[in-house]
Every structure is written in C-alpha cells, then in structure tokens.
Fold this protein.
Amino acid sequence: MAMAPIKYLTRLLVAIAFLSLLASFTDAHEDRQVYIAYMGNQPSSQYYSTDSHLTLLDRVLDGGSSAKERLVYSYTRSFNGLAARLTREEKEKLGGEAGVISVFPSRKLKPHTTRSWDFLGFTRDLQRKQSTGTDIIVGMLDTGIWPEAEAFSDEGFGPPPSKWKGVCQNFTCNNKIVGARFYIAPDASIPVERSPRDFNGHGSHTASTVAGGEVKKASLSGIAKGTARGGAPTARIAIYKICWSDGCDSHYILAAFDDAIADGVDIISISLGGSFAVDYFEDELAIGSFHAVAKGILTSASAGNYGPYRGTVTNVAPWMLVVAASSIDRRIVDKVVLGNNKTITGISINSFPSQKKFYPLVIGDESICVEETTNTTSEGKIILCCDGLYEAGAVSSGAKGALAVISGVDSARSYGLPAVGISERQGKIIRNYIERASRRPLSRIKKSRAVFNPGAPVVALFSSRGPNPITPNILKPDISAPGTDILATWSPKGLVSSYVSDRRSVKYNIISGTSMACPHATAVAAHVKSFHPKWSPAAIKSALMTTATPMSPSRHPAAELAYGAGQLNPKKARSPGLVYDATARDYVNMLCVQGYSTRLIRLVTGDNSSSCPRNVNVTTVDMNYSTMTRYVARGQEYQAEFSRTVTNVGDPNSTYGAKVASGSGLDIVVIPRKLHFGELNEQQSFVVRVAGRPLSLNSVASASIVWSDGKHEVRSPLVIYTEHELWS
C-alpha cells in the first residue's frame, strides 16, 4: 500500500513534464495571427511594391513558410504598408525594422448598427439644387450593396467622370454604382458568393441613405410608409465590401482605403468601428482617413454604439467627421392588449400581422428567455421575459409572442417573433396582472405603427459619448444626425431581425445606430462638395459643424460630449459664411504636440523635409478646429486660451461681430470682437480666453462663440470638462 502514493506521484510528474513540453512546443510554434505593419505615405522619391514588402518579411520570418505564404495584403496605391500572418516574436522584429511606424494586430470591427430628411428640413427641392452632383462619388466601406434595389437605378445618369479609376469585381456596375470591390481571404469559407453583393442589408441601408434615388410608397411591411430618398440622390456610389458575416477585418479596411483613395472617390463613409479608441497609428480608420484627407478626401465615420457612458466614442481622429445618433420626429411603437382590456404601449418593430385572438400569457423562465431551448412549455403562449429577450429561445419554445423588459432603451428593434419591448414599470404591471388575474391571463400583440415624436431631436442612449480618450482637447463626436428608427433600402437576403433563422425577406428595413447617423452627415458633405468642389475636407467639416442646430444641455447630462456641435442642418451647411480650415500639415503639427517624433512624421507624410519644431508653441487647443475644448482638473479654478483663424467664404465685403452665449458661469473674452473682410478667401484670426470656478467630477461647462454678419451665424461650441467616472 505504501507504493501507491509513489506510483501516483510518478504519474503526476510525468504528466507535468508532458504538459511543460507541450507548452514549450506551443510557444515555439505559436499560432500566427494577422498583423498590420504601417509604414506611412508612399514617398515621392521611392515606390514600395509588393516585392519590397516580401523582402522585408524575409528578414524577420523565423522559417517554416515563405514570405509569399505569410503575406496577406500589400498596401501600395495610396500609402505604404503590409498585412501578414506572424508570430509575436516576428511581429516584434518587424517593428524594429527601419521605416516601420507601427505593427498592430488586425482586429474584427463591427458595423455600428424617410422621414429623417424631411425632419432635417432637407426637402426634395433643396436636394435637386446640386448643379455638379453627378460628378461626386461617395466611397461606401460596408457590407456591400444590392444593385437591383430601385434606389440604385442609374436612370438619368451619364457616364462617370473621367477622373474615375475604379473597377467592378465579379459585379455588374451601372452609371449610379460606378465601382464595386470586395475583400476576403482566398481560403476563407463563406456561405455566399464572393462579390460586392450585400447579403446583410447594412451596406444597402447606408448607401441608400447617402445617395439613394427617390422611391415612393417605401415601407417595412406597411410600417413608416412614405417616400424614401437619400440625402445626395445625384451622387454616384463606389462600393468597398469589407464586412462579412463574422465582422470586418481591419487589414481589409485599410486595403479598401488604399483603393478608394487611388480610385478617385470624393467622400468616404464608414459606419463601423472597434469597441474602444486606440492610438492613431494603430487604428485602421485613423490611418486610412489621414491619407484620404492628405488627398483632399473627407472621411465620415460613426461614433459608436456604446453609450450612454462617457469616454466610449471609438472613432476620434481629428481629421475625421465623427457622427453621433439622435432621434427624429417619428417613433415606431407597438401595443400589447391584456385580457383585462388594458393596453400597454412599448417600443419594437413588429412587422408581423396584429394578432386577432388572445393567447395565454405566462412568465417565461430563464431557459426560454435568454437561451435557445427544447423546452416547449410555452408553446402557443405569449411569454413575459423580465430580463431581456434572446428570441431564439422564445421561437424554439413555440411561443406565440414575447413581452421583453428592456431598461435603458429608447429605440425600437425587430424580433424574430411578435414581440414588444417594455419598461421595468410596465413589466411590473403585466407581472402583477399574471399573478393576480381571477381568470387565465391572456394577451395579444398588435402590429407596430409610426407615431409623432414631439421631443426630437435627442441623442440616443446607445450613441457613444466623449470625451476623446486619445486627444482630450479635441471634441468628439463632432456632430449629431438622425440615427434612430431609420427606414432605408435593405437586401432581400439580409436578416430582418437578429434571429438567424428569420426567413422573412424585405426590400426596406427600419434600424437604429450611429451607423445610420453617419451616412446622413456623409450625404450633406457630398451636397456641400457639389457646390464647393475645391473646398478642403476641413472646410466641408467646418461648414457642417458651424451651421449645426444647437441642442439642449438640459436634456443631455453629457452636453456637447454627447452631441458635438449640435444637430446636422443641411439647409444651412452649403453657405456657412466662414470656415475653420486646416491642412494635413496642421494635423501633423498636432501629432508633434502629442509626442510623435520627426522620424515618424516623415514616414507618415512621405516627405523628408517634414519636421517637428524644437519648441512647439502650439497645443491641441490651438488646432484650428470648429469647436473649442479643454480638459481641466476637478476642484481647481482654470483658465484657457484658444487661437483660431477663419476664412471668408460668404460675402466679399463683410463684417462679423462676436456673440457669446454662456449659461455655465464661464468668464469669456473674445479678441477682437469684430472681424472685417474685404474679399473672398481672406483669413482673419482671433483669440478666445475663458476662466471659470472649480468644477466637480463628471462636470461639463459649455458656451458658444457665434460670429454673425446679419446673414450668416457661425457657431463654435466651447466646452470645459473634468474627468469622469468609468460608467458615468
């Protein structure tokens, strides 16, 4: 018997030794992952090709496979870089090579999932005043497009402009959809064809919001019926399909930017992002959009869907236009009628027909409400789910419908069965009815309908808030635009709801997200570009921001950190009076302030004459931005100064006076108080000095500086804020 413990101990030691050997083998043959090596701009004196990237990889690979086998993508058209499958050790070696700015893992990004234009006052008559609109090409980086949709008809369009260099891969383009590319690994296993065709719906939705033609009697199964139209219907579309059923690979996002810039798009729209903000040169959207802005191309991006918490905005580069989501004056509601004739109104997009008969109403258990199940005790019944709803469980249980208690939600969504989203208070009322009913509790669910929403616009709870976690003194998001309950074109192959077995097929769908807000801003940027084709991306962005409609801080605890400059105003954007302009060099100076070296700046720009001044006297608060933002320590008095330069794009001979609007106890001085212009494109500078009393944790003190000539009002929000709690 004494030998038994020794025998077991020996076995244990052998097992430990085996596991150690296995661990060392695993470490030595670590699973490779895709890394992106960013190497800046293509310098004018030297062209980097795929061959040069293969040579670079050969120097860092540890063996086992060739550089050609490891290379995933080579970026050579608009900037310099590569994507390759590497071990961690190889990644570190590549990062030490001359000319490499950053090496970072490719990540999976997700899409930030028409009444809106009428709500913004952007009538069809105003849209038709795009004299050169058909020359504007918008690059859509998304899930593709459904070309047969009526919104994408090319009736009335001539050939694309001669500048266009795009192609159509495995896809038939027309004079509306002038380019279509797709990006996926050659060995990827996918259930759909390899083409730019949209099998999701998200890409068709965003593209039609930007540039879809007018379609009458559009609706989701009769809900929100009306005329659907994009904001820039005379613009053309170029499609770059980067997202598939498993998400959007960042190395292909960069590939799409590389192509779109070289193809000749005028505006880029990208409604997706990561789950948090990252360093600019480890951020595929920031990298791609930087090279776009250097070529005169504005990138419009979604803010993210991680609100209402502060510091959750995911796209934050100052050269991008970043868009928050707000409500419109239409809500989609649904009603459940209880057996006691009480009607409760909730929010959901229920396109199933109204139930004519009552069904038994029961409290659903966790196995049905939050997970897929074989439990059939709810078959033929409507279930009350008190902690949200995973509809696969409800559908597989055979339920006739569901009432889902969802807290902190202010926008409707579709489910894979008749369902109504209700508040916690409404859930208690229904539970009380079930538990106390003298007869068997019953209910029936009606089909959704659209109702007037008098409180709009309000920033959606899901919309990500600032402050900017990378550059705290640059306000993000920049602006707010309609992003809740938006009706637009859908792919008939796309899911109507998130239930994967939902077999309904529709031509239009109603969804919410900053993904829906972004294309609204993109469309207005295209509209402005059609009138001012020579304006810089910064000038176009300034036009949208300084003409935005102010929103109410009393309805938004985070104030400008939620809505930026305010609500998008298409009617005023093309004639802003003054603009805050900036060039790629201005953004480079900002990067110098943030600590980037001259070596990196030269690589980024591709210009060996670029350098960071030894004594940089410009701070990020002096970046010529349309908003003025300053982070201050809590509990201390503060002072800040902002230097700005405006360019006259209004009347040649004009005088603008400064008005200060402040309700936050800020002491603000503007020097000078008047700006005189004698010609177009003349520039004048001014300084804003602000001081204030100590602020507490989670505080935002805001004001606005408005320059007015009696015809134009050029408004710049001024925001002072303190640190925030993580989940505030």
User: Anything to note?
Assistant: The first strand starts at residue 33 and ends at 38. Confidence is low (pLDDT under 50) at residues 1-29. The CA atoms of residues 95 and 538 lie 32 Å apart.
